[in-house]
Each structure stands twice: as C-alpha cells, then as structure tokens.
Amino acid sequence: MQLKQLREEVLETNLELVRRGLVLYTFGNASGVDREHGLVVIKPSGVDYDDLRPEHMVITDLNGTVVDGELSPSSDLDTHTLLYREFPSISGIVHTHSEFATSFAQAGIPIPAFGTTHADYFYGPVPVTAPLTDEAIAGRYVHETGVAIVARFHGDEFQPPVDPLAVPACLVNGHAPFVWGKTPWEAAHNAVVLEAIARMAYRTVTLEANMMEVSQALLDRHYFRKHGHSATYGQIRAASVG
C-alpha cells in the first residue's frame, strides 16, 4: 500500500472514532501497518482531532522508531507495534476509552457472548488481561500493556488461547479496549460493534444477573455465516465461467 494512501486511511479511521462517539477530546488513537515495507502509520500524540491532517500522521518502523513525521507519535505506539509483531494477520489497530467497553475493562470482566449480535463479530467472550504488576507499570508500561494482551491470547493452564482474528479485541484490565482488524477501517468498525455489544451485555446482566451465554450452536451459526470459507452473509458472487 502507498504510504500516502495509508496516511489518509489512518486519518479517516481516527475521525470515524470521533464520529461514532467512541473518543472524547484527544483520547484514543488508530494506526495501520504496511506489511510489505514494515512501516506503521499512527496518530500523533495529543493533537486535537479537528486539526488532524494526513501529513500529521507519524510513520515508524515495527520497533517504533520514527522514520517520517514532525510530530511525536501516539503515546500508545509501543502497544500497537508489539501487537503488529505478534499478530501478523492484523493490519489495523484502534484504542478507545468508549464508555461501556471501558466499564468492563475497569471491572476486570470479560464481555460475555450473550447473543447473536455478539456472535456475528466475536467468536466467544471478549477477553480481559491480567492486571499489570507494579513493576510493569513502573517500567515499560506501554510495552507491557501489549505483553499482557498477547499473553492473554496465547492462553495458559487456566485460560484457553484465543484467535486474534476470531476475537479482534481485548480489554486491558483497569484501562480500556484495544481493537484490531485486517485494515484500519475494519478495526474501527469492530470498535463500534464492541461498544454496542458491551452496552447490550451491561443491560443484559442488569435485567438478569445470572444470564447464561448463548449456546455453542447459536454462536457457531452466527459467527460462521459471516466468517470463514463457508460464509453465506451478504452478496456472494458466483465464480465466473468461460
């Protein structure tokens, strides 16, 4: 992808977060990666969204070294670059402090898969990381945030691994969500949906505190109708002949 095009896409992704009400003031950020050249385009730190232009987007390598741009990159850069290195199937990341998803993160609670709206986008609960240790917070905090996300997706003896494309989001304990996709725009789309299903989940447990998650059969039915080789949702083009 041309970097000019990626800069424009990353700008529009950041602005979409504002349009959808997921970002207040300068909270949040979005980035995209050019996998061919190993370059990341990310929002500059602390710049008002009304003032952002494509040329303000900062370009770094996958280790976070700035290679182009006059402004400082987002303070969350080290989380973005670590996720790009660890999850090679993703090419866009957004971070917001959207109200309901952040409420689950602050409570340290995964977002359960209560219904088909959730299942259309997330193949199971949206996980939450373990709390960061005092040492991690005092050290390379932003890097350690990414480490916590990756550790949760790798799983351990207590929690199964999670496919980052099947569940394209993670709640950082005590913090807020990071969401991703195959493109920056898809990451923003997933962030909007995440906030919607977090709001629904909050209201669901308000109505029924002991609500069970949706059945595996219904989860499978709704997730796989939109994802994978057998997807049937939308306009499926027949293979051309002759």
Question: Which short descriptors sum up this protein?
Answer:
L-fuculose-1-phosphate Aldolase; 8 helices; 12% strand; seven-stranded antiparallel β-sheet; globular; 242 residues; alpha+beta
In summary, what is this structure?
This protein is an alpha+beta fold and 242 residues long. Helix content is 39%, strand content 12%.
> Assembly type of the shown chains?
single chain
Largest sheet: 7 strands, antiparallel
Helix tally equals 8
Give the H and E element order: HEEEEHEHHHHEEHH
Q: What's the name of the CATH homologous superfamily?
A: Class II aldolase/adducin N-terminal domain
Query: What value does the Rg take, in angstroms?
Result: 18 Å
Number of strand segments: 7
Shape: globular
Q: What spatial order of strands do you see in the largest sheet?
A: 4-3-2-1-5-7-6
How far apart are the termini? 32 Å
CATH architecture type: 3-Layer(aba) Sandwich
Overall average pLDDT? 93
Fraction of residues in helix = 25-40%
Strand content: 5-15%
Q: What is the structural class?
A: alpha+beta
Poorly predicted segments: 238-242
Q: How many domains make up the 3D coordinates?
A: 1
CATH class: Alpha Beta
CATH topology: L-fuculose-1-phosphate Aldolase
What do these coordinates show?
- The chain is an alpha+beta fold and 242 residues long.
- The chain has one domain: Class II aldolase/adducin N-terminal domain (L-fuculose-1-phosphate Aldolase), CATH 3.40.225.10.
- It has helices at residues 3-19, 77-86, 99-107, 116-119, 134-138, 141-154, 184-207, 216-226; strands at residues 29-34, 39-42, 58-61, 66-68, 92-95, 169-171, 177-181.
- Strands 4-3-2-1-5-7-6 form a 7-stranded antiparallel beta sheet, sandwiched between helices.
- Helix 1 (3-19) packs parallel to helix 7 (184-207), helix 2 (77-86) runs parallel beside helix 6 (141-154) and helix 3 (99-107) crosses helix 7 (184-207).
- It is globular and about 50 Å long.
